[in-house]
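Board notes (copied after class):
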Amino acid sequence: MVTLMLMFGLLVLTLGAELLVRSATKLASAAGISPLVIGLTVVAFGTSAPELVVSLQSTLSGQPDVALGNVVGSNILNILFILGISAVIVPLVVSQQLIRFDVPLMVGLSVLVLLLALDGQIGRLDGLLLTAGLISYNFWAVWKSRQEQAVVRAEYEANLGVAEKASDLRGILLNLALLIAGLALLVLGSRWFVEAVTTIARSLGVSELVIGLTVVAAGTSLPEVATSIMAAIRGERDIAVGNVVGSNIFNILGVLGISSLVSANGIGISETALRLDIPVMVAVAFACLPIFFTGHMISRWEGSLFLGYYFAYTAYLITAATIPSMTRTFGIVMLGFVIPLTIITLAITVVRTIRQHDHSEKDSQSS
């Protein structure tokens, strides 16, 4: 029965991701919004629904560590695992908008969480600030995209003398219904999957702590996993990358902001989270910058490097859970692991960019 639930959960996840990517792409065209912005907003926020539900429930039930750990753990998994496995499937081209604004915003928000947590709490005022930031970001992203799309449409009409065919209301409503159905299937599928894997883990004698650090944290990110992988397979690379960056932004502004806003005492920050987990989230966010800024794409080998980061992180989580004495050195080891590999990534990516530039110069000279 548990195995059947596991398989059915994966099937529902896959179906939900397929519906979500198809409908979001068509709605983007109909609304005059780029697929990248749809990935950064509707798809990213929709697939972060499990994180929001889990964090709200844990906050209201007096478990702030779960709420904070859910956000931090999901952000680390989104970058290292989801971007990594998507890039292994197909190299991901990084949009100029992501490079100019959204990725720096994601890094800045990660640093902001660290600063807000220094006093040992993310209070209601902090939550109000983060929630206001979420609303502002949504309005800006949609407005900016519609402005850019309007310019493209004007050029299209001027050059060809015809206007683009407007989408009919029936098609819009149908795709909106498919989008909602896809989101619902993603949430439902991830829930069944987490329950099944948790039951199997307990039957094998794995501790509750290890289950919470690995299975539950990864389970709430399953919609992002399914959506980005499906988008990568279908060639919707903007949605694949935008979903990850947008989910991380939403996790901080929306999940953490709303959770701390509804809590009477805000979200308390444990010393372990402040010393270990939040700095790791910041370090992983910074690790994106060399790849995104110098190469403008995530190649297969860089995706493999991200996956290596994630598996090393998970291994240390399990080790720290089973051997408490290692917890004190965990942050130092992780930061010492990420920073050198980031420098290596930067060096190799710069070399690749220089070689591409040399090749392009040789081609222009030969022609």
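Comment from the instructor: The beta strands are 92-93, 121-122, 267-268, 297-298. The longest strand covers residues 92-93.
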